[in-house]
């Protein structure tokens, strides 16, 4: 991939909605991907004839900020923006119509990323959609779409965020603290909030207690979905050497076409919540040690670097897009097929 893969970024569109995006929020991958693609330009080509894929460089998070009418519950302005942009590049270039969008991709970490893709039938049916909200019940298709991690970056540096003690110094069995949104978290809190010293479940952390310090004292970090399936806690758990416990419905974890999540994470259903402690304590110490070591091995694939480094989250996203592009054959207009 590093030697061959080439991306053409459509130059049309002005910031902030196009060629820009948030870099310091839970939607940070929208902005960081755009900017790091420009920075690591060995993957970019200015010649669309040499491109394997074509990037539609719009930010859904920025559309919500600048196009959407707050509290209107009207997706019309966002959808019209997407329709107008694709119409513009389709009229100016032959590539969208040539492939009906199947060698094009969009990337979004906003919850409304899927909704934005529904603006055009070919965009959500044919194009590669790199989404944090990788929810199969909302038409996420893991065969052609890419699940990307939700990373809550507050600065452009990770100093102090990646690390953690050895397993023997992790004295808490499991930990969660977070807002009560979505259908799963209320169930978790109902069964475990202030019920057991080994299962530390909080709606709000006690005053003076550090979220990351408790993560680093915990063997397992509970990662229940909120309103949408993705959660930044998954990456936070990996950064802190804590085995993530995924509790979700219809969620496709990031990079699961190359990473075996069950080898370094516990995957549970909502029905497993009442039996959570028995489930975790039934995992032998030896098995836990294996999982925790794999957490330390795989977390480099979720680390954000500036500039990007091989095998980090930026390269993993590109690799996932590359794998899906390999499944597509394009007619070049002269009867020849290319991959």
Automatic annotation (TrEMBL):
Task: Indicate yes or no for the key word Transit peptide.
Answer: no
Q: Name one GO cellular component term.
A: Golgi membrane
Q: Where in the cell is it found?
A: Golgi apparatus membrane
Where does the source fall among the domains of life? Eukaryota
Residue ranges of every copy of the Exostosin GT47 domain listed in the record: 2-282
Pfam families given in the database record: Exostosin_GT47
Task: Give one GO molecular function term.
Answer: glycosyltransferase activity
Give the record's membrane topology: Single-pass type II membrane protein
Q: Which UniProt keywords apply?
A: Glycosyltransferase, Golgi apparatus, Signal-anchor, Transferase, Transmembrane
Whether Glycosyltransferase counts among this entry's keywords is yes
Q: Which PANTHER family match?
A: EXOSTOSIN HEPARAN SULFATE GLYCOSYLTRANSFERASE -RELATED, OS07G0188700 PROTEIN
State the similarity comment: Belongs to the glycosyltransferase 47 family.
**Protein name (database record):** Exostosin GT47 domain-containing protein
């Amino acid at each position: 991939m590093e030697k061959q893969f080439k991306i053409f970024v459509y130059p049309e569109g002005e910031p902030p909605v196009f060629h820009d995006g948030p870099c310091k929020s839970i939607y940070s991958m929208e902005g960081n991907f755009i900017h790091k693609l420009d920075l690591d330009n060995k993957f970019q080509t200015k010649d669309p004839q040499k491109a394997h894929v074509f990037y539609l460089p719009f930010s859904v998070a920025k559309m919500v900020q600048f196009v959407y009418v707050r509290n209107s519950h009207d997706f019309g302005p966002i959808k019209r923006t997407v329709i107008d942009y694709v119409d513009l590049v389709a009229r100016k270039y032959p590539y969208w119509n040539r492939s009906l969008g199947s060698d094009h991709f969009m990337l979004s970490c906003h919850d409304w990323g899927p909704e934005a893709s529904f603006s055009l039938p070919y965009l959500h049916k044919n194009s590669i959609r790199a989404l944090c909200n990788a929810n199969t019940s909302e038409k996420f298709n893991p065969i052609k779409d890419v699940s990307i991690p939700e990373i809550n970056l507050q600065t452009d540096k990770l100093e102090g965020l990646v690390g953690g003690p050895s397993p023997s110094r992790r004295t808490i069995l499991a930990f969660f603290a977070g807002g009560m949104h979505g259908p799963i978290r209320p169930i978790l809190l109902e069964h475990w909030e202030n019920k057991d010293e080994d299962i530390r479940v909080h709606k709000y952390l006690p005053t003076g207690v550090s979220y990351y310090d408790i993560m680093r004292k915990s063997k397992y970090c509970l990662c229940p979905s909120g309103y949408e399936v993705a959660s930044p806690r998954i990456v936070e758990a990996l950064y802190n050497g804590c085995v993530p416990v995924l509790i979700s419905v219809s969620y496709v974890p990031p990079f699961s076409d190359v990473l075996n999540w069950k080898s370094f994470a516990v995957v549970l259903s909502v029905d497993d919540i009442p039996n959570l402690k028995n489930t975790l304590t039934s995992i032998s110490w030896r098995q836990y040690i294996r999982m925790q070591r794999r957490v330390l091995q795989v977390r480099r694939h979720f680390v954000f670097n500036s500039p990007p480094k091989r095998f980090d989250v930026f390269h993993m996203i590109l690799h996932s897009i590359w794998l899906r592009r390999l499944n597509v054959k394009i007619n070049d207009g002269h009867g020849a097929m290319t991959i």
